[in-house]
Write a structure and sequence with these properties.
By secondary structure, the protein is an alpha+beta fold. Helices cover about 20% and strands about 45% of the residues. The chain is built from two helices and 13 strands; from the N terminus they run αβββββββββββββα.
Length: about 200
């Protein structure tokens, strides 16, 4: 029985397609927020890093797969939150967090809304020596963004905080997408190049 010349390349091509199909989706958004210090600090209090989700559309807690946020303020510098020491808080009604290919859109109910909604990345409160949080809260008489850090001592002092109250109703903030070339595309491309190379060698022979 004659063996097909394309059996090897064909198997490689199909395997690549299967692996690409099984690759996990990943959408990463840039976080660069800066607020003027309003409590026990001077200058600005900042948070920089990224949030990663596994899908597009309206998000729930389970859709946030990774994050790394670095906090800096007068008394609290280079403090990093990751999934190992913090958690996402997403609860209430009247607001949403929606992911698109271009941006992460955080919508909060405004000052005049009777709803109450919050989206935050906060330090795991099991570690009670430190309070660290970056949050948006809206409705129920408030509409604000806050960045809070707290030095790790028994008296919880100093307490660095930046708060920006929003007047617009509702509050909408967007974080731009960071768009790396997905691993699945690299995998597919390498498989395709391998297929072309094998076919050329077959023809040369």
């Amino acid at each position: 029985m004659k063996k097909s010349r394309l059996s090897g390349p064909f198997v490689l091509f199909i395997t690549t397609l299967v692996l690409c199909h099984g690759a996990h989706a990943s959408f990463i958004y840039d976080v660069e927020r800066s607020l003027a210090c309003t409590n026990d600090c001077s200058g600005n209090i900042t948070v920089d890093g990224y949030l990663e989700t596994d899908s597009l559309g309206t998000l729930g807690l389970a859709n946030f797969t990774d994050w790394m946020l670095t906090f800096n303020s007068t008394n609290f510098t280079n403090t990093v939150l990751t999934p190992s020491n913090s958690e996402i808080l997403l609860q209430g009604i009247g607001g949403s967090v929606v992911a698109t290919m271009d941006e992460l859109i955080i919508t909060q109910p405004g000052l005049n809304s009777s709803d109450d909604f919050i989206f935050a990345v906060k330090e795991d409160f099991a570690e009670v020596s430190i309070i660290i949080v970056w949050q948006f809260q809206g409705g129920d008489g408030s509409s604000a963004q806050e960045i809070i850090t707290n030095s790790p001592n028994a008296s919880f002092d100093p307490f660095d905080q930046g708060t920006l109250t929003y007047i617009p109703d509702p509050l909408i903030v967007s974080l731009p997408a960071i768009i790396p070339l997905p691993a699945a595309i690299w995998l597919f491309g390498s498989g395709l190049l391998g297929l072309i190379g094998i076919s050329r060698r077959k023809k040369a022979a």
